[in-house]
Amino acid sequence: MNQKISMQNTLFLVGVAFIFSFAMRLIWVYQFNGYEPYMFNGQFMISTNDGYLYAEIARDIIAGNELHYRDETALAISYMTVFCTQILNVPFESAIFYMSALFGSLIVVPLVLIGKALEKVEVGFIAALIASITLSYYNRTMVGYFDTDMLNIVLPTLLMWALLVGIKSKEPRYILYTILLIILYRWWYPQSFSLEFAFAGIVVLYAIYKYYKQKEDVSFEFTLLGFMLLAMVGADGPLGLGVIALLYIFYKAGYLERYTIYFFLASVGIFLLAGGFDPIFAKLKGYIFQNLANMDVTSLELHYYGAMQTVKESSRIPFDIFANRISGHEVAFMLSIVGYIWLCFKHKNMLLSLPLVGLGFLAYFAGLRFTIYAVPPMALGIGYLIYRISNFTPKPINYFLMILFTVLALTPNIIHIIGYKIPTVFNKNEVKVLDQMKSIAGRDDYIVSWWDYGYPIRYYSDVKTVLDGKYHTGAANFSFSYAMKNSQEIAADILRADVEYEEQRIKKYLKYKDAIQSKEETLDPNIVRMILESGFKDANDFLAYVESGGEIKMPPKSREVYLFLPNDMLGIFPTISKFSEINLMSGEMEKEPFFFMTRYMQDKGNYIDLGRGVALDKNSTSVLFGDTKVPLKYFITTKYDNDMQLHISSEKINPDGELYAVFMSDYRQLLLLDEEMFNSTFVQLFVLEKYDEKYFQPVIVTPFAKVYKLMK
């Protein structure tokens, strides 16, 4: 192929790669076409919880409603959705389902352009094909994954291209591209600062290398750096944009050439005065420095179970998963590293990709979510290796080998895509319950549930929530966890207090927003307000008081509160309960109540194997944990009739037994519970549908999800 490839041919290769990328994402659509549980109102639902936040904001902007989002700011992805639906006239549900696949496929653009810049467009084309469907990138840009990830890698890869070509060509327009990409990236993803700063750092090192080792002029590099620093701290308003635009015009006209060093130093000074270093590690802190018990120092020094401990994407991952997510296969990953090193050795300006590689490799220690950043440079690495090895052979054999090796590199990723049948966040029956709540609850009412469901609840029911994908600290989660584990009387008190104090907290936040963001003022978590307002300084004394029947002091009732319990919560209830199994004063974890759920039941004659080393002894009606026998107290069976009414049959096995067995026949699952878990609000309301009418009243009760109104 002609290395001086025309832009027309380049665009053709971009188009081919884009069509390939998008077509691969339609495999999921083909697999589930017509599958009703994943569809609502004739449209596929999305598969990421956070996506419902962006969809909610976009919907409210279109409808002209006051935003429920806490800091009342619409996000870039929401504005993009409004544009697609209002200007391009795309149906709303279609837009939020397909946008990620369309925008995510744009990753092919910078990769092909980088190949063209290296005068090896085959490398960029191969990299575009591979990167576009590599495991981690596909997973986070597939259809239905409505999240900022659809451009979170595209934009920094474009920035890498602009820096790479700019430093090579020294053309002023690439400084303009860099400025615009930094501004666009920050608008799209405000947490992009650390990566932008890393790019600036690499440019500094590259400039030093050129100056001292190659004795080359580096005025372009330092001019570029000056504009980068200004764009990073001054491009969030009309004044900053105007100043940067004016400076660029001066530079384009040649007025800054004699003052490069002064311009750079002035930019550094402005960067420092604007607090340029402050946000660099803010986003990563929660992923790198994780403690089981996180202390919130406000009015009370309490310890909470760290929410990040339960997020898989922030946990250290095994090497095979790490490698597979970056390159599709461990062998492909190792070959990618070889090719990447070779590429950087032959093209020194490719070292500008190190920030993406570094952040991607951070995933090995800080969690799989970061692997996505290493995908583009590693794809370029294996693309370069394929190109170089193939070209050791004469034409046309080299083209055959390039195709063969590319297909081999793509194969594990294609296999993954075919088998990656990720479900939607909720199924149709659960969404029908939430949709019904839209006509029952008012916009200022609350539906309380676990944080995983916060955004979907707000989207489908158009109400407020306490917990969601942004607000799920250990302190925030404690109240809901504690309520679900305890009696209905305690749950009613805790949930009502949590909502009323949440309303006060939000109003205070909005009033003192700037001061709070600058850490001049902190806000007490709701549980702290409950403790202090009830006259306690010791959290343990407060909880003992509540458990003995004491009444929590709280603001007067201001709105209705509903409790949403989906079937999915049953599987994560042990995780939910952990958040209130910590001693708030000491930070020590207390003994976990016993909760075991299984769908694995194999009849072995004298016993039923339940999996994970647990069995049910038929003869002695005991639960076997290895050689240890624990007697059952009750065996309970639940079953729905044709009218979806729950019927419960209960057999008392041993009055001195320690465990309850609950066979949920319609779900084909068995629960083993101790006394505390059996009597918990969650089990009583969801599993058994037994409610104390003084505290809860059923609103919508189905096998798939249940909503109770708080009567407190």
List the helices and strands and how they pair.
Blueprint: H1 7-31, E1 39-40, E2 43-44, H2 51-63, H3 76-87, H4 92-104, H5 108-117, H6 121-133, H7 135-139, H8 149-152, H9 154-169, H10 172-188, H11 193-213, H12 219-234, H13 238-252, H14 260-273, H15 282-288, E3 293-297, E4 301-305, H16 319-327, H17 330-346, H18 354-361, H19 363-366, H20 371-390, H21 397-419, H22 428-437, E5 446-448, H23 454-461, H24 474-485, H25 488-511, H26 513-517, H27 526-533, H28 539-547, E6 561-566, H29 568-578, E7 595-598, E8 602-603, E9 607-611, E10 614-617, E11 622-625, E12 628-640, E13 646-652, E14 659-664, E15 669-673, H30 675-678, H31 681-687, E16 696-701, E17 705-710
Parallel strand pairs: 5-6, 12-14
Antiparallel strand pairs: 1-2, 3-4, 6-17, 7-15, 8-9, 9-10, 10-11, 11-12, 12-13, 14-15, 16-17
Helix pairs in contact: 1-5, 1-6, 2-3, 2-23, 3-4, 5-6, 5-9, 6-20, 6-21, 9-10, 10-12, 11-12, 11-18, 12-13, 12-14, 16-17, 16-20, 17-20, 18-20, 20-21, 24-25, 25-27
Strand content: 5-15%
Multimeric state: single chain
Poorly predicted ranges: 286-297
The N- to C-terminal Cα distance equals 75 Å
Put simply, the count of helices is 31
CATH class category label of the domain at 428-578:
Alpha Beta
Number of strand elements: 17
Could you name the CATH topology of the domain at 428-578? Pyruvate Kinase, Chain: A, domain 1
Helix content: 40-55%
Q: What is the average per-residue confidence, as pLDDT, rounded to a whole number? A: 89
Largest sheet: 9 strands, mixed
Class by SSE composition = alpha+beta
